[in-house]
Amino acid sequence: MSQLRLLDLDLDLAIPSASGLAARAEEFCGAAPHRHDPFARRNWGGPLHSLCSYQGKLKPAIGHFLVSWFTEPGWRVLDPMSGVGTIPLEARRQGRIAVANDLSPLADCVSRAKVEPFDPHDVATIVDELAAFISSGPSLDQVASEDDLSFGLNGPIRDYFHADTLREVVLARRFFLVEQGLPLAARDVVRSSLLHILHGNRPYALSRRSHPVTPFSPTGPFEYRPVMERLTERLQRVLPLLEELMEVGLPGESHLGDFRDLECPTVDAVITSPPFAKSFRFWSMNWMRLWFAGWEREDFASEPKKYLETEQRQDFAPYGDFATAMHRLLRPGGVLVLHLGETASVNMAEELGPLIEPLFEIHHVGRECVLDTESHGLRDKGATVAHWYLFGTRRAD
Ligand SMILES: C[S@@+](CC[C@H](N)C(=O)[O-])C[C@H]1O[C@@H](n2cnc3c(N)ncnc32)[C@H](O)[C@@H]1O
After folding, report:
1. What b-and-e string marks burial along 207-226, b requiring 16 or more CB atoms within 10 Å of the CB?
2. Which of 20, 60, 104, 108 is most buried, taking the most CB atoms under 10 A from its CB?
3. 120 pLDDT higher than 50
């Protein structure tokens, strides 16, 4: 299939009816449009998809085509496990109403920044308040105990930053946790920008040299890197893009919580990429950003139990709850698309199919081998050998 044909399909697709869905799904799995140039390029989709790095993020081009091939403009499109909002951002860009949800405060924060409208004046006010909070704030030992600063999963947090930067980072974290009255979308635009620059190996990073996705133990000199200066640079880069998005995209919404508890108006489609089997170290891979988003030391022991990453280590029974929750939120006939992982020992499509089937008619299930895909420099590429796509529609009550 030629590139032109792929683009034609992207632009001209008709509404997926239940009967047409199987054919379209089969065509999607055969063509894998996201694997063709330019969609396969590492940075395809632009800087907003990289608003904040996140271990476990979906390739934006997959989200792009799942939205364009399987939903219509104006539809409410829900991702109940949205991570950093890759699918919701693609939905919003393509004229859908994006609904994001995630149990992680880090994921919710970044999703909200990508889908909810905000007032740029609020962003400026929050930046000023944050600057004042940091400059008038107390010293490091007044805001954090030695015990707080010795926390960290690849070395203590105090090893990542120059002492003056660390003081500002700790105060910025506290600012977002104690200032309850801030307008949420504007707050999360600022906070996402800060979360992104927290650690990495680029000049913008606040930390000593580490990895931008996962904070591996740092190397290099302890240099003072002023939080407000770096944050302002980051905002100058992303704010015009977010403002442009508000002009073209419909306002969406982000929810924080378990998908089982999600309450929102009925949606037309659910497109989601649940945690892949054996991806149970998500909290350690994202630990510093989770800490900044509010997790305390003890949360790293108690919170992971609540996540599907952990639950599905026992068995996939929680996906029965998932099917029930999505059936409750989707309109009859509404579309369900799951992007799933296969490891050498577990095929999630096989495991989930029987749990989804009582409430959804399954039209097609297709496989994509991913052994040839890039690792983005991470040492732990994960155990995934293939991706699966499951396409269904909600059965009537
Ligand atoms: C593979 S990631 C999704 C990545 C996302 N597509 C992206 O591009 O960032 C799976 C997500 O499921 C979320 N999650 C796990 N259990 C959950 C639950 N019970 N309710 C809501 N979200 C959950 C995790 O926090 C994680 O962000």
Report:
1. bbebbbbbbbebeeeeeebe
2. 104
3. yes
Return the higher-pLDDT residue of 68 and 380. Answer: 68
**238 alpha carbon, distance to own chain's centre:** 17
DSSP 8-state assignment for residue 145: -
pLDDT tier for residue 278 given thresholds of 50, 70 and 90: confident
pLDDT in tens, 157-194: 999 999 999 999 999 999 999 999 999 999 999 999 99
- Distance between Cα 350 and ligand 1 center (Å): 20
pLDDT for 132 beyond 80: yes
Distance between Cα 361 and ligand 1 center (Å): 24
The full DSSP string for 150-196 is T--SSS-GGGTS-HHHHHHHHHHHHHHHH-TTS-HHHHHHHHHHHHH
Residues spanned by the domain of 387: 3-116+251-281+296-394
Residues 259, 390 share a domain? yes
Question: Does residue 339 lie in a domain region?
Answer: yes
354 and 305 in a common domain: yes
Residue nearest atom 17 of ligand 1, based on CA coordinates:
307
Are 192 and 265 within one domain?
no
31 shares its domain with 101: yes
The total number of structural domains that make up the chain: 2
CA of 212 to the centre of ligand 1 (A): 20
Task: Output the pLDDT for position 384.
Answer: 83
Using one digit for the tens of pLDDT, what is the confidence trace for 8-55? Answer: 344 344 555 666 899 999 999 999 999 999 999 989 999 999 999 998
Q: Fill in the amino acid letter for 205.
A: A
270 strand-pairing partners: 78, 336
Q: How many CB atoms lie within 10 A of CB 242?
A: 22
Examine residue 177 and state whether it is found in any structural domain, yes or no.
yes
What is the whole-number distance in angstroms between the Cα of residue 159 and the centre of ligand 1? 29
Task: Report which ligand 1 atom has the smallest distance to the Cα of 308.
Answer: 16
Q: Is the separation of the CB atoms in 128 and 105 below 8 Å?
A: no
- Probe residue for ligand 1, chosen from 89, 102, 279, 324 as the CB with the greatest number of ligand atoms within 8 Å: 102
Confirm or reject: Cβ of 103 under 6 Å from ligand 1. yes
